[in-house]
Amino acid sequence: MAVANVAPSTESQDDIELISSPLTLPNGLVVPNRLVKAAMAEGIGLGGGPPREGHMNLYRRWAEGGWGIIISGNAQIDPRQLASPHDLTLPSHPSTLKAYTRLASAVHRHDSPTPSAPLLLMQISHPGLQSSATINLSRWPWESAIAPCSDRPTVSEGPVGWFWSHVMWPTKSRPIVDTTEWLEIVKRFVDAAVLAEKAGWDGVQLHSAHGYLLAEYLSPLTNPDTKPLPDVPKDIPLRLHLLYLILKGIHQNTEKRFIKAVKVNCSDFVQGGLDETQSSEIIKTLVSWSLLDIIEISGGTYSSPAFASPESLKSSNPNPSRQSLFAHFTTSLLPSLPPPPDGPAIILTGGLHDRQLIASSLKERACDLVGIGRPACLYPHLPSDIILNPKIQEGDAVVGGYRIPGSELMKTLLGASNPKNGIKLVGAGVSTLWHEWQMCRIGRGVEPDVNMHWLRGAMVEEMWYEVMRGGPLNWWRCLMG
After folding, report:
1. Torsion on CA atoms 413, 414, 416, 420, rounded to nearest 10
2. Where is the NADH:flavin oxidoreductase/NADH oxidase N-terminal domain (predicted)?
3. Closest to 119 measured CA to CA, from 235, 27, 209, 195
4. What are the residue boundaries of the structural domains of the chain, listed by start?
5. CA gap 413, 401 in Å, rounded
6. What confidence tens digit (pLDDT) does each residue in 411-433 have?
7. How far apart are CA 405 and CA 416, in angstroms?
8. The domain 10-405 is classified under which CATH number: 2.30.110.10, 3.40.190.10, 3.20.20.70, 1.10.510.10?
């Protein structure tokens, strides 16, 4: 982006000052500014595992870019239950702590050009029934995912949708009926948070959105027959028992200044799933526990991936002047919540790629922090180079709006182009993969390429650098020590 050498307008200065302003969280930690690098699967490494050298390079670039908070991609608490073949995991091995410590050090290093290092959160997660054995190769294809119910995602109506659903999930999920298994899941989440603190991370974010396991427990569609869990106060709603035990466990086993965050859906956007009224009540209850420092608002599941398909929500926002995907929800919710530091900070992610929109959302308290995801894959220094750069005029401080070369062709070939019966998950995946490949480029020391054709990314970034070099060759190197 070319930078015009002109004096910034008063409006630009005011907006930059607001977005640059620090925010104190309930635990006393201070976020340097209001821009959050939202969680995204980095697409680096095959077969799961701790952070690799590519992660170090990628996170170092983000750390230099002026973000207030950096949230990692999924760190799965169970290495057999992955959301993608590239997910970070937390294996029980001494090298795990060392690798996550290195990544935290890469972000918190003292020679960074930015005045304040960003806070670093690990997104800890379990994909639940959405974990595909055939895509992720983390278990045998006949081994089921686990969930509160027996089901598989429905990616679309019609024979093409049926085909994709049965290829990705050959068997329905195995319902968890034993309380002991639920308590083991609680322990895995708590242990992950403890490891993150030992590794020098500033906190964790529980992924309780997008149809993952914690979200499935909250949803009446996937948890219709909720059973009580032990050691939960009687006034806690049944579907909040799992989150309560995890948050309580993290609170008891980490320091107060260790950030506790959660990502929740404002709606599942599927019939019978969590709706906005239910979500509002859940969030109000979570806030009443005084166990959280940050809440991020998102939406959708694999069946209706609103979080990855902004076009599917264009008509859902009654205020066209604010383009965030879920701002209509937060604008009505936040007046009933205490502002930080008396209550948790609210992150709004999706569609806020414009300095003016970001500032107006903060002024109107549609949010306290703004999450930016996909543009951060192309512009790792987005805050310092664009949004907070006084040399860039208000109308030019915009990112997003780019087209992915070859994406429409791939959507057509993969059955995602039909607006009625097209497979939304595949359409969202086409964009997600392309952005992951941009992160792979940064990870290996190459600049992102906004003009990269989708097929080139698939062949070069995925097949060669990740599958061949990151797969058999890397496995051979590991085998030989």
Report:
1. 90
2. 22-226
3. 27
4. 10-405
5. 23
6. 777 665 555 555 555 666 788 88
7. 16
8. 3.20.20.70
